[in-house]
Amino acid sequence: MASTDITATGEWAALGRHARELQAGGVHLRDLFSADPGRVERLAVTAGDLVVDLSRHLVTAETVELLLALADRAGVAERIAATLAGDPVNATEGRPALHTALRAGPGASLVVGGVDVMAAVRAELDRMAGFARAVRSGERRGATGRPIRTVVNLGIGGSYLGLAMAHEALAAFRGPGIECRFVSNVDPADLATVLDDGLDPAETLFVLVSKSFGTPETLANARAARAWLTAALGPDAAGHQFAAVTADRAAAIEFGVDAGNVFAMWDWVGGRYSMGSAAGLSLMIAIGEDRFGEMLAGMRSVDEHLVRQPLAGNAPALMGLLGVWYRNFWGLQSRAVVPYSHRLRLFGSWLQQVVMESNGKRVRLDGSPVGCDTSEVVWGGTGTDSQHSFHQFLHQGTTVVPADFIVFARPDVDVAGSPDAGERHEALVANGFAQAAALAFGTSVGGADPHRQLPGNRPSTVVMASELTPSVLGQLVALYEHQTVVQGAVWGINSFDQYGVEQGKTLAAAIAEGLQADPSRPASEHDPSTTALLAHYQRLRRA
Ligand code: F6P
User: Fold this and answer.
1) pLDDT digit string, tens, across residues 153-176
2) Distance (Å, rounded) from C-alpha 502 to C-alpha 117?
3) Atom 10 of ligand 1 has which residue's CA nearest to it?
4) Cβ neighbourhood burial of 51 (10 Å; 0-12, 13-18, 19+)
5) Residue 505 φ/ψ region, left for φ over 0, alpha for ψ in the -120 to 50 degree band, beta for the rest
C-alpha cells in the first residue's frame, strides 16, 4: 500500500514557508502574548479532567491552521478511526492496535475478523479481578497456606514500565499488607536485590508478564525466581505461586504455571500500549479492581475526547502536531517531560518507550524512506529535582528543548507535623509555573550582564489536573499514547512495530554464545571490533 509522502505535499511546503517567516521575523513569545490577549483561552484545551495549556508554544493562529491542514492531508482523523475500528493498522505485522478496546467499557462492542473483542476483554478483566481479589483478601494463599505479602512482577519494556510507573504514581491508593516489586533487568543484581530484601518464599507471588513469552531477560528472571521458590518450598510451589500474562498460553503452562493462573494478552495489543490489559495484574493486586477500573475509565474519557473533539480542540492531536512542528520545521531534537510530582518520577521512562519505540522509524508504511526526521528524544526528570540538574541547559543552553510540565492542584500526601505542612505543595507548584514562565518570557534580572540573562522564547506545555487519582493517571497515559500515534500518523510510519529492538535481541543471543565459547573458535563469526571485545572479556574472566 502506497502511503502519502507528507513531505512532498503543499501543506508541508506551506508550513515550511510559514516557519521560515516566523524565524526570520524573530518571533518571540513575549510579542505573541502581548499582541493577542485571547491567546491563553484559545490555546488551553480541556480533555477530561486535564487542562492542557499550549499557549506557550511558538505558534500563531495561522500556524495552528496550517498544522490542522497538514493533519487533514495526512489523514490523521481517518487513521484514528481505522485504529479504533480494529483495522490492521500495524501493517508490517498484519495486526490491529486495539489498546482502546481494553478500556472501552461495559457497554462497548467490537467485532474484528469475526471475533468479539470486547467479550474477550471483559472475560479476562473479570478473571484478573477475581484473582486480584483473592490475593488481596488472603483467600488465595501460597503453597504452604501462608498469605501473599509480596508480588514480584517479572517483565521488561511494555511489560514493566507502565506498571511500575502507575504503581508508584498511585502509592496513595495501594492497599495495605501486600507489597509489589518489579524486576526487569537481565542483570542478576535486579532480581537478587529484591529477593535478598527479606522476601519469604512462602509469601511471594511471581507475576510473569511477557506477551511473546520469548523475551530472554524475563525468562532468565523467571527461571531464577522459580529455582529460588522451589529450593525453599519444593517443585509444586512454582505452579501455584506463579501467574503468567502472555499471548502464548501453552508456553506459560509448559514453564510450569498452573493453567488457571495464566491470563491472556492478545497480539492486537502492543506491549508499550498494554497497561490496561491483564499485563496490569500486579498493579490491580496493589490498588484493587475498583481503582484499576477508574484508571481504565480515565483512559476511556481521553479516548472519547480523541474521537469526538474536532482536531482544532483536540488535546492529543494538537500535542502531536506540535511535535511535528518542532521536529521538522524548527529542527528541534528532543522534548523534556518534567512532572512536578514525586509520584510520577517514572513517567519519563514510560513515555520514552511509548514515543521512541513507536516513532523511532525511518521508513513509511510502504517501506519507502520517510524523507524527514521522526521521533524526538524524550528525556526528563521530576521537578523540583530536575531544576538542580538540567534546567540550566533548558534556560540558557544553545539547544532549545520544548518541555512538558505536569502539575496537580492538590497533593496526595503531606509530612504530618512539619512546620510548613500545607505549604510545601504550593512551593512545588510555584516552581513548576516559574520554570514555564522563565522559559517562555526570559528574565532580565542582572541588567545587561549576558551571563545572567535568560533569553526566553522557549516553548512548554503545562498539563494540570486537580490531583493524581487513578482516573487522572489513566487520562495522562491515554493523552500521551494518542499524541504519539497522531505524530506517527502525520509521518505515515507504523507506530506499532519495533523491528530494531528485535534485531538487537538476535544479535545479543549470538554474542552471548561467543562469550561462552572456546576462545580458540574462529574469529570471523563476529565483526572485528566485537571479536576484540570478546577476547578482552575472556582475558578478564580468566585473570
Ligand atoms: O523492547 C522490545 C519489546 O519487544 C517491547 O516492545 C516489549 O514491550 C518488550 O520487548 C517485552 O516484550 P514481551 O512482553 O514479549 O516480553
Assistant:
1) 999 999 999 999 999 999 999 999
2) 27
3) 157
4) middle
5) alpha
Does the pLDDT of residue 492 top 60, yes or no? Answer: yes
DSSP state for residue 253 in the 8-state scheme? H
Q: State phi, psi for 350 to the nearest 5 degrees.
A: -60, -45
Percent of the chain beyond pLDDT 70?
Answer: 97
The Cα–Cα gap between 136 and 177 comes to 8
Contacts of 292 (CB under 8 A, 6+ apart): 129, 132, 280, 283, 284, 470
Among candidate residues 277, 276, 291, 326, the one with its CA nearest the CA of residue 483? 326
Residue 394 CB: number of other CB atoms within 10 A? Answer: 22
| Average pLDDT score over residue span 204-233 | 97
Cell 498544522 sits at which residue? 67
Q: Can you tell me the distance from the alpha carbon of 125 to that of 506, in angstroms, rounded to the nearest whole number?
A: 34
CA triplet 380, 386, 392: central angle to 5 degrees? 100
Which has the closest alpha carbon to 461: 325, 354, 306? 325
Q: Which of 62, 78, 139, 388 is catalytic?
A: 388
Sign of CA dihedral 223, 228, 234, 240: negative
Strand 204-209 relative to strand 150-154: parallel, antiparallel, unpaired? parallel
Q: Cell 482523523, residue? A: 77
* 361 has catalytic annotation: no
Cα three-residue angle 457-463-469, rounded to 5 degrees: 160
Atom of ligand 1 nearest to the CA of 279: 14
Residue in 357, 376, 425, 482 annotated catalytic: 357
Closest CA to 252 of 215, 286, 204: 215
Query: How far is residue 275's CA from residue 99's CA, in Å, rounded to a whole number?
Result: 9
**What's the CA gap between 279 and 477, in Å, rounded?**
15
**In 333-423, alpha helices (H):** 347-352, 358-359, 391-396
Residue nearest atom 14 of ligand 1, based on CA coordinates: 210
Nearest to 373 by CA among 332, 430, 318: 332
pTM for the predicted model, two decimal places: 0.96
What is the residue with the minimal CA distance to atom 9 of ligand 1? 157
Q: From ligand 1's centre to the CA of 391, what distance in Å?
A: 32
| Residue 211 is among the residues annotated as catalytic for this protein | no
- 445-458 tens-digit pLDDT: 667 788 999 999 99
Ligand 1 pocket: which of 95, 159, 210 to mutate (most atoms within 8 A of CB): 159
- pLDDT at residue 4, as a whole number: 79
Catalytic residue (choose from 426, 505, 513, 536): 505
d(CA 244, CA 263): 6
